[in-house]
Amino acid sequence: MAEGSASLAEVETAFQKFAIHGDTKARGKEMNGKNFAKLCKDCHITDGKNVTTTDVDIVFSKVKAKSARVITFEQFNQALTELAPKRFKGKSKEEALEQLYSLLIGKEPANVGVTKVAKAAAVDRLTDTTKYTGSHKERFDESGKGKGKSGRDDIPDTSGYVSAYKGSGTYDEKVKQA
């Protein structure tokens, strides 16, 4: 039975990981219904046939205290004991519970549906620096890397000559000739 108690500690670890999922104030001692349903889904306790999300909700309501909105680890174990025979039909209660524990061990909340970077053609087109024209083209080097401030700032010419004047730097020579 020593092996069973070791797996119980691992089950408690999984319980704590799911208990704090999505809740910054949670300490891992109690689990709400939403996280219990997530645990059942992520660990494949719900299979859509024998155990449905409705079953999970019913068992959660059954084991929690009347006015409470969360369950403790002891109540969580009670809930698993109720779900195990449903999930593994034809097995003894102990065998079913052992198999249910094996589904939980080492699991943590999967972040399904986490926001990913959009890879749309429009975004690619807008961020492709080779297609930039006009003054924006000057902001990037050949490799497409930004030049930083030197590519952005219009650096003034303080030589004293107008920008289109062709003979800049020839004044001193003209003065010498005269």
From TrEMBL:
SUPFAM superfamilies: EF-hand. Its main location: cytoplasm. Keywords: Cytoplasm, Heme, Iron, Metal-binding. Residues 132-178 are annotated as: Disordered. GO terms for cellular component: cytoplasm; microtubule. InterPro entries: Cyt_c-like_dom (IPR009056), EF-hand-dom_pair (IPR011992), TPP/p25 (IPR008907). One of its GO terms (molecular function) is metal ion binding. One of its GO terms (biological process) is microtubule polymerization. Pfam families: p25-alpha. It is found in: Cytoplasm. Signal peptide: none annotated. Residues 23-166 form the Cytochrome c domain. Residues 135-155 have a biased composition (Basic and acidic residues). Belongs to the TPPP family. This is Cytochrome c domain-containing protein. It comes from Anabas testudineus. The gene is TPPP2.
